[in-house]
Amino acid sequence: MANATFDYDGETVIVTGGSSGIGRAIALAFGDAGATVVNADLQPDHHGDGDVTPTHEAIEAEGGRALFVETDVADRSAIESVVDAAREFGGVDVMVNNAGTHVPGSVLDVGQDEYDLMESVNVGGVLFGCQAAAADMLDRGEEGSIVNTASIRTDTALGDQILYNLTKGAVKMITRTAALELADRGIRVNGISPGRTVTALAEGTEKAEEWSESDDLVKPIPMGRPAAPDEIAPGALFLASDAAGYVTGELLTIDGAWSIY
Asked: What is the pTM of this model?
């Protein structure tokens, strides 16, 4: 099967939550494609056990250019600061609003603190990430692309996950509304909706195959396994590329066919 390749040489890409999981895979993929990558995360190290090279160092080790900026996406000013930091490389060309958090809970017992955390990170981080990136692009008179990480939970609910479900549903509407408002300004806004993905130190699909097909899914994944992060990342590169130049306001579902039946 042929491999798709992308060329982001000369482009600057910000990835929030790029130290681990899907965000790390996206950041590394943009680095491989020639982009200067700014990893905006709480910490540079991989979130998990094990000795893993920080994302920006891994990109640099392959001859690329990258930067880590400590960023709490729950803080609007921190997002603005990381966008400002991208000016060192000419300004943000692609903004990937990927950072997110997860607090389980039922509609009957979820509390205010849990709600405030999930809303500020999963919703505010995406909304103000779109805002800051778009403002930078418009200020420089440059076209650009924004990619938001949503989830299959934008459309399908899972019990005891009320906050995750509602915040990912909000990401869908942020994406579509921002796309509508920015379409005539040369800024495209899209999203990826991953399904079950093995994110803790996953390397390829080997570990993914250890997972149960029915693990918290109610129904099995038709492709027989969850995804590895590096199977999600190409969707972000495609949506940010010229190959998707007439695509905006869309969410690309990447879930091994789980959501179609």
From this structure: 0.93
